[in-house]
Amino acid sequence: MKLIMKTIAPVGRKHTATVIFFHGSGDTGHNLVEWVRFLLRKDMEFSHIKVMYPTAPVQRYTPLDGELSNVWFDRASISIDAKESRQSLESIYETANELIKNEIDEGIPASRIVVGGFSMGGALAMHIGYHVNTEIAGVFACSSFLNRGSIVYDSLANRKSPNSPLPELLMFHGDRDSLVPAEWGEETFNELKKLGVNGDFHLLKNAMHELKAKQMMQLQEWINRILPEYSSGVENKL
């Protein structure tokens, strides 16, 4: 499945790392770019990193009474207790992993790729980084959660190489989020930590189900640390 894509790439040079930023349910990659631009008063851009903003396919979404919407996967309800729709997830795994494979084919190692997202997009990113492809560099999730009994937890608990490193995790959650309570995000973070994931969880004061400017600045700093710019000598070998 080919996705509509909005991309912010370095000007005048080949990128040496990639960030894939998944939007929340009912949104688009284009709208997410505009939201980030509004918060930062500029694009989230880097001298050496390409940032990709794909748009989810249009499909029927149960929480909207089966109406069509741009969503990454279907689910019974927006609840941490709901069962995952694993058939729906399987469909988007292949599509999202194809984005990673395309970057690898362009010469970007998996260890130079970060995936993340807002709300449902953050949940997808955690599925990708801790179930589908654990070789990527990092995962970020904003106002997101995993369902109790998630396949992600099963996958981490049954890893064939339990001592191999996992992608670093960065999570943000608003303390006034009424759609996805902060407790769901904290529970998700703690469960992943128990299963060997290292990272940080930031509770945002007076924040609802939203992105904030300070949060985006912290995210940029984290991305730069996870995906540092190569020295010119190393970059020329890519």
Per CATH, the class reads: Alpha Beta
Structural class: alpha/beta
Average pLDDT works out at: 94
* Envelope shape: globular
- Unreliably modeled segments: 232-238
CATH fold name: Rossmann fold
Quaternary structure state of the chains depicted: single chain
Overall number of domains: 1
The CATH superfamily name is Alpha/Beta hydrolase fold, catalytic domain
Strand order of the largest sheet: 1-3-2-6-7-8-9
The helix tally amounts to: 7
Using only C-alpha atoms, the radius of gyration works out to: 17 Å
Notes on the structure:
- It comes from Hermetia illucens (Black soldier fly).
- The chain has seven helices and nine strands, in the order ββαβββαβαβαβαβαα.
- The chain has 238 residues and is α/β, with parallel strands linked by helices.
- It has one domain (5-235): Alpha/Beta hydrolase fold, catalytic domain (Rossmann fold).
- The protein is globular, with a radius of gyration of 17 Å.
Sum up the structure in keywords:
PLipase/COase/thioEstase; disordered C terminus; EC 3.1.2.22; carboxylic ester hydrolase activity; Rossmann fold; two-stranded antiparallel ribbon; 35% helix; seven-stranded mixed beta sheet; alpha/beta; 238 residues; LYPA1-2/EST-like; AB_hydrolase_fold
